[in-house]
Amino acid sequence: MEKKTAVAAGTMLPLMEAFYTIQGEGTFSGTPAYFIRLGGCDVGCVWCDVKASWEAAKWPVLPIEEIVEGALQYPGRLVVITGGEPLMYNLDPLTRLLKENGFTTNIETSGAHPFSGDFDWVCFSPKKFKTPHPSIYAVADELKVVVFHKSDFDFAEKHAVLVRENCRKLLQPEWSKSDLFINSIIDYVKSHPNWKVSLQTHKFMEIP
Ligand SMILES: C[S@@+](CC[C@H](N)C(=O)[O-])C[C@H]1O[C@@H](n2cnc3c(N)ncnc32)[C@H](O)[C@@H]1O
Ligand SMILES: Nc1nc2[nH]cc(C(=O)O)c2c(=O)[nH]1
Ligand code: SF4
Ligand SMILES: [Mg+2]
């Protein structure tokens, strides 16, 4: 099959990097996980901490069997698919293969593209820069809003009414503005106890 056709089918995917680390953010923070970072993103967040991922063409296109083989080299059985924006691709074949190999599958997504894949946990981090696709709201397990500006609290509430009742609600300071916003995040969570704080703990630990 031609590469382009295989990428469209989701049987080959552009891989920026893959690494075994500790999930630093959100509900699974502290859990060992194999990260699969797919290349390509069209959302364009001004504060994105992985801008190098944006151009899909920069990254090698690999068969999903090879990607899963990489994950099998480590003892942990939690995989986090991230990017870039992973939902730019059809994730059905990759997640099916991961599950056949005994992995738990989590995703980190902006929700800017139609949902695909078989996931045990969906972390939805909506962005002002590109409106989420409506398919994300019924599947999000965690709503993780990055706080970069004071208007982001209202932005967070706007999305909180659209996700499922039991969806976890997290506020995460944008890394470079952490010192500026951490106190208002703490105050907000204390007065709106349906929210929790999420920190990028891997950055404090200085691990990938
Ligand atoms: C790099 S993104 C990749 C996945 C997907 N494109 C997304 O945005 O959800 C992974 C996570 O990091 C968060 N993130 C990216 N840059 C950040 C920053 N500078 N500070 C805090 N969180 C950040 C995103 O909101 C997202 O939850
Ligand atoms: N350790 C670690 N945890 C993470 N949680 C979400 C990440 C991401 O970039 O998607 C990330 C990451 O890049 N590293
Ligand atoms: S959607 Fe994710 S990968 Fe894309 S620019 Fe925003 S934070 Fe970066
Ligand atoms: Mg990251």
Task: Give an overview of the whole structure.
It is built from 6 helices and 9 strands, in the order αβββαβαβββαβαβα. It has helices at 3-9, 64-71, 92-100, 152-160, 178-191, 201-205; strands at residues 12-22, 32-38, 61-63, 78-83, 104-109, 121-124, 142-147, 168-173, 196-197. It is globular, with a radius of gyration of 17 Å. The protein binds S-adenosylmethionine, ligand 2KA, iron/sulfur cluster and magnesium ion.
CATH topology: TIM Barrel
List the secondary-structure elements in sequence, H or E: HEEEHEHEEEHEHEH
Q: Under the CATH scheme, which architecture would be assigned?
A: Alpha-Beta Barrel
CATH superfamily: Aldolase class I
Radius of gyration: 17 Å
What best-fitting shape do the alpha-carbon axes yield? globular
Number of strands: 9
GO molecular function: 4 iron, 4 sulfur cluster binding; carbon-nitrogen lyase activity; magnesium ion binding; S-adenosyl-L-methionine binding
Catalytic activity: 6-carboxy-5,6,7,8-tetrahydropterin + H(+) = 7-carboxy-7-carbaguanine + NH4(+)
EC number: 4.3.99.3
Function: Catalyzes the complex heterocyclic radical-mediated conversion of 6-carboxy-5,6,7,8-tetrahydropterin (CPH4) to 7-carboxy-7-deazaguanine (CDG), a step common to the biosynthetic pathways of all 7-deazapurine-containing compounds.
